[in-house]
Structure formats: C-alpha cells, structure tokens
Amino acid sequence: MRLEEARPACAASEERSFRMFNTTVDTKFFGLLGKPLSQSAAPFMQNSVYQKLGIDALYVPLELEMDQLEPVVANLENFHYAGSGVTMPFKTQVHKYLDGLADSARFTEVVNTIVFENGRKIGYNTDGTGFVLSLKNQLRLSIPEHRYLLLGAGGAGTAIACALAMEGAKDIKSLCIARDYFCAETLFSRVDRHFPSVCTIGEMTEKSIASALEKYDVVIHATKVGMYPNADETLFDPGMLDPRHIVADVVYVPAETKLLREAAARGCTTLSGLWMNAYQAAEQMRLWLGVEPPIDYMFSHSLEYLRSQGKA
Known about the structure:
The chain is an alpha/beta fold. It has two domains: 28-125 and 276-309, Leucine Dehydrogenase, chain A, domain 1 (Rossmann fold), CATH 3.40.50; 128-271, Rossmann fold (3-Layer(aba) Sandwich). The protein has eleven helices and 13 strands. It has a seven-stranded mixed β-sheet with strand order 1-3-2-4-6-7-5. Helix 5 (126-138) crosses helix 10 (273-289).
C-alpha cells in the first residue's frame, strides 16, 4: 500500500484551500490519520494557524482503513511528512507501529500525535493534556479538589483519566456500556498500574449514572453520542443534573451539544469540547513546530468554521 492511496477527506471549501496553498520545497506536511474525517475541523484550524503565524506548513487529512495503518505510518517520512495527528479508530492501535512512547501515551498506549525525534517515531497523547488545560484555563479548576465522573472509556476517555491522575486527581469513576467493558478494563488497568486506586470502572446504566452524580461534581462525557449529525441525542437524562455539577463534553461538532445546552439550562457550569480540541491541537503544534499557538483564535476560528458548515 502506498501513502498516496490514503484518501484525503475534507469539505469542499478545504479542498479549494489546499489547491490554493503554495507549497515549496521547505513546506512541512503534517497528516491526520483516521476514518471518517469529513466531520473534523482539525485541518481547517491547523492550516488557519499556520497561515496566521506565517508558518510554511500544511495539515492534510488522510482517510484510511485499519489494514493500511502500518504501511502508512512506516512511510510518512518517505513522503515528506514531518509528523501526524491520529484520530478514531486508530488511537489505541497505532502505538504498535512506533519506535517509542512519551509519558503522555506510555501509561495508556493511546496515541493521537506522532512526532519524529532523531529519526524515531514517538507517540504522544495531547487529548488528555488538552482537556486538563481547558479545565484549568477556561474554568479555573484546581484538579485535585474535585471528583470526576467519566462517561465513556475509549481512547479519549482513558487519556483524560490518565491526564487527570497525572495532575493530582484522586477520585475518578468511569462508566461504560456493557459491550465495551472488557476493553475499558484493559485500558484502565494500565492507568491503575501507574496511579493505583485513583480510577474505578463500572457498567453504565441509568441507575449507576444517577448514583454517581450524587458523589461526583465534574461530569465528563467522552462518547460519540450527540455528535453531528445525531445532535439531538444525549447519553443520559440531563434532568439528573443540578447546579453544583460542572459538565464537560469531548464532542465538539456541534460546539454546544444538547447535553451542554440542557446542563446550562439547569444552572450547571459547562465546557465545550471545542476548547479541548483547541488546546490539544496547540500542544501538537508545540511538539511539531516549537511555536506558541493563539488559543482564543483557534477556538473562535473553529467555531466560525462549524457555523459556516451548519454544524455549530
């Protein structure tokens, strides 16, 4: 399989911007490996920042199948890529094809960023880091002072749990649906090896959610429920929330999910997944390019893009 066989996936407006981009022999290319990618605002956000900062770089979405992942990763440098982002469904698989893992990914083996360091491909995870930064910077939360209910235990959820534990969180409860329990147990056992007794896991039911909401004040939704085009869905009844809850969503398309909208109506403090997306992308840019990205610009520009697509 050749890298050029990976299919670019982007909106028509992005395709036009790619064609208009004047690449040079010095242009740094960064990929995004995943499927599907048509909903991702990452290429628009990354390329907008490159242009704003005058950086000669281009971020390209590469949609591929699972059996194409290994050869694509192996050939990234041969096709002049300087690094890559990784999204669903490859975050829990790509570590097998890398030369090493940074601490942010080593504890969980969940990778969303590939960095080339001295000829080696190193996996990082900026999802968890980005989420924690969004809590600290946007909501001014002191991480150790809260209890966290994490709904969903996939790659993003596990990365968030690990990042919270690294920042001093002492009580994280993760609930997942029955069919995902074995996989979730495997992922969270990796976190537990490094942060014993911080994370517990249980089966997600209406009763278990209601019970957990009595004890935990920060509610983190980390599943695909409510993502465009199914924006009218919620994982649980928001009527169970009350004003003491802080509700954060990892879904960022739409920027304000039905869960966040109804939580806010009940007096909860809320945090859009678009902030997590902006902070994790900024961490990627620091790793790849050593720059300090403009977070507020990244958030507002991404929101503008989603509105232009009718997905905000």
